[in-house]
Amino acid sequence: MTATTHEAGHHADEPTGLTRWLVTTNHKDIGSMYLLFSLAMFLVGGAMALVIRAELFQPGLQLVDPYFFNQMTTMHALVMIFGAVMPAFTGLANWMIPLMVGAPDMALPRMNNWSFWLLPFGFAILLSTLFMPGGGPAGGWTMYPPLMLQTGTAFPFVIFAIHVLGISSIMGSINVVATILNMRAPGMTLMKMPLFVWTWLITAYLMIAVMPVLAGAITMLLTDQYFGTTFFSAAGGGDPVLYQHIFWFFGHPEVYILILPAFGIISTIIPAFARKPLFGYSSMVYATASIAFLSFIVWAHHMFTVGMPLAGQLFFMYSTMLIAVPTGVKVFNWVATMWRGAMTFETPMLFALAFVFLFTIGGFSGLMLAIAPADFQYHDTYFVVAHFHYVLVTGAVFAILAAAYYWLPKWTGHMYSERLGQWHFWLSVIFVNVLFFPQHFLGLAGMPRRIPDYSVQFADWNMISSIGGFGFGFAQLLFVWLLFKCIRGGEKAEARAWEGAEGLEWEVPSPAPHHTFDTPPVVR
Amino acid sequence: MAHAEGGYYVPHGSNWPIVGSVGLTALVVGIAMYLEAMSAGIWVMSAGALITLTMVVGWFGDVIREGVKGLYSDQVDRSLRWGMIWFIFSEVMFFAAFFGALFYARHLSVPWLSGEDPATSRVLWDSMVLSWPTAGPGNAGLEWQPMGPWPLPTINTLILLTSGMTLTAAHHALKEGNRARLITFMWATVALGVLFSGLQAYEYYEAYAHLNLRLETGIYGSTFFMLTGFHGAHVVIGTIILAVITLRCMKGHFNPESHFGFEAAAWYWHFVDVVWLGLFIFVYIL
Amino acid sequence: MKTMIVRTALAGLVTGLMLVAAPAAADLGLINMTRGVTESSERIYDLHMTIFMITVVIGVGVFGAMFYSIFRHRKARGVKPATFHHSTTVEIIWTVIPLAILVAMAVPATMVLVDFEDTSDTEMTVKVTGYQWFWGYEYMDENVQFLSRLDRDSDRARQLGSDIQPASVDNYLQNVDRRLILPVDTRVKFQITAADVIHSWWVPDLGWKRDAIPGFVNETWTEIKEPGVYRGRCAELCGRDHGFMPIVVEAVEKEAFQAWLAEQRGDDAAATTAGADDAEAGAELASR
Ligand code: HEA
Ligand code: HEA
Ligand code: CUA
Ligand SMILES: [Cu+2]
Question: Which of A36, A307, B97, C129 has the most CB atoms less than 10 A away?
Answer without folding.
Answer: C129
